[in-house]
Amino acid sequence: MQPATEQEALDLLKKLNIHYRRVDHPAIWTMNDPNTPKGLPEVKNLLLKQKKSDQFYLYLTDRSRVNFKALADQLGIARSRLTFASEDELEDLLGVVSGMVTPLALMHDGKHEVQVLLNRDLHTLPEISAHPNINTATVLMSYGDLLKVLRAMRHEPMVIG
Questions:
Q1: Per-residue pLDDT tens for 62-94?
Q2: Domain-located, residue 1
Q3: Which string of DSSP letters, residue by residue, matches the chain?
Q4: Is 13 among the domain residues?
């Protein structure tokens, strides 16, 4: 798969008339990266999979802990079957690497193999932060605009506890 690009992410936002604010910063590779600018909404992006079948993009606030047993129950699968996607799977499905996972990369899921899972607490944030397919910038938008972007990419999210 072709790598996801910043330009295609920004073009998508422009095409959908999404109002966003951009913050440039040094590369951020993890949630605890010292390069993370202060004041940005802190979110986690995880690509999970059910062994050898379904993929799940989980987007949640940093204060939300992932209860994998409860999540597996909500998805109707065994906890033992829910794992993290590999680096190769990340690149194959979304065209990004660890540290660059973002809802904007879901445009690369042309076969709609990834189920989007949004933590219910996301809507309480004043802004949602997402990398524009690179980890040296962050775009900030409203929760409603995030939903608009996901739906434009034909990903109807499931809200989870």
A1: 777 888 888 989 988 888 888 889 999 999 999
A2: no
A3: -PPP-HHHHHHHHHHTT---EEEE-S---STT-TTPPTTSPPEEEEEEEETTS-EEEEEEETTPPP-HHHHHHHHTS-GGGEEEPPHHHHHHHHS--TT---GGGGGG-TT--EEEEEEGGGGGSSSEEE-SSSSSEEEEE-HHHHHHHHHHTT---EEE-
A4: yes
Below-50 pLDDT ranges, the chain: none
Q: What is the CATH number of the domain that holds 66?
A: 3.90.960.10
The verdict on residue 71 lying in a domain is yes
Instruction: Tell me whether residue 78 is in a domain.
Output: yes
The pLDDT tens digits of the residues spanning 111-122 come to: 899 999 999 999
